[in-house]
């Protein structure tokens, strides 16, 4: 079908809602047009950048009628950097947009549901400086090593000096390391020229115990990396753990099996809800600890666990959910396939003297296949963005736990998964949770109860 608009057309358009990537969406002759940085309620002039059969994209060129919720972004490189998507929208309005993104996903993918089950988004009192870990590329620019981010929708490097969503200590450590590299003539690796030494830095800082872990990511081993250790720890004694990670192709994640401890302890410690967690560099830990604590408490509240319940903590990471449940359940199986996370979970459960959790270091489906347990009362899920998927849903239908608590970081896969479960389960409550302020990411927790009439 021929579209009414074509590339480079300039259009005036009313923005109706926000898409999952934080863009404004308006309709031109029924065609959805996605406009970056346009806000719901605005009328804008936009230049069409691409036209596809079912949608178009456009670039905002003028605000004809701005939203009263539009604000000035706090970050000087916000327009270029791809890290945040919604700094131009006031925080409280964005919280209700996050709920709306879930509503729109449910409208699209669920054959039936009651909108009232979706509650208000739980936000942060102070949404700045929440990230406790950053994995950033390095580049040498005008003779100096810099850390940065990639530009929106591209791999163009944008140098930064400070980031308002990272904890200040992370910014300080990045700054110190790049300055030390300048002094010691250690260069950032440049993939275009294949020259230099360090391609990325991963820095994690821990709440409560104020420890830091630094991982240098290098395409190949280099002895000179050791020169950075002593100046770094004398300037930042909180750095308790340093790794050299050899990653020749950067295809998958930063961490590879060649992660070598070059200074200090294998793990750093974080305190949350009176638990002390020990983190290896590649172990998943929620990036926003303040919200993570609320997230786990909410999961626990919705799960309504009793002393007789056998519980599965699926996609467990270092098993924080199992820690929060602790002796409220009869038995908990924490299932996680990342071995760094599994080791961290074992150490943490032992340190916190939690005895009724069995950590199974396997793929979720394999673990359930081998599980010698006839009855599972409650399953708590916290999967990656791809959601549960068909096979996991089959397993749920086979075990039929009385209650499912589903922590999700992707409203689309959540809605698709729920659609496969609603013949067997009632959706009782969906609680959106803002784990990543100033981004368009939406997390939520859903409580499902097995239908009683079945
Ligand atoms: C979103 S994280 C949640 C971790 C944990 N619940 C927390 O709050 O810290 C998802 C975890 O699932 C793990 N994972 C992903 N796919 C898996 C699978 N098929 N089987 C077991 N674990 C898996 C990942 O390694 C990751 O640690």
TrEMBL record:
Keywords, comma-separated and alphabetical? Methyltransferase, S-adenosyl-L-methionine, Transferase
Q: What is this protein called?
A: 23S rRNA (Uracil(1939)-C(5))-methyltransferase
Q: Which residues form the active site?
A: 409, 409 (nucleophile)
**Encoding gene, per UniProt annotation:** rumA2
**What PROSITE patterns does the database record attribute to this sequence?**
SAM_MT_RNA_M5U (PS51687), TRAM (PS50926), TRMA_1 (PS01230)
Give GO terms: molecular function aspect only: rRNA (uridine-C5-)-methyltransferase activity
InterPro entries in the record:
MeTrfase_TrmA_AS, NA-bd_OB-fold, SAM-dependent_MTases_sf, TRAM_dom, U5_MeTrfase_fam
From its record, what is one biological process in GO terms? rRNA base methylation
Record's keyword annotation contains S-adenosyl-L-methionine? yes
Which residue ranges does the record assign to the TRAM domain?
A: 4-62
Family label: Belongs to the class I-like SAM-binding methyltransferase superfamily. RNA M5U methyltransferase family.
* Species assigned in the record: Acholeplasma oculi
* Residues annotated as binding S-adenosyl-L-methionine: 286, 315, 336, 382
What highest taxon heads this organism's lineage?
Bacteria
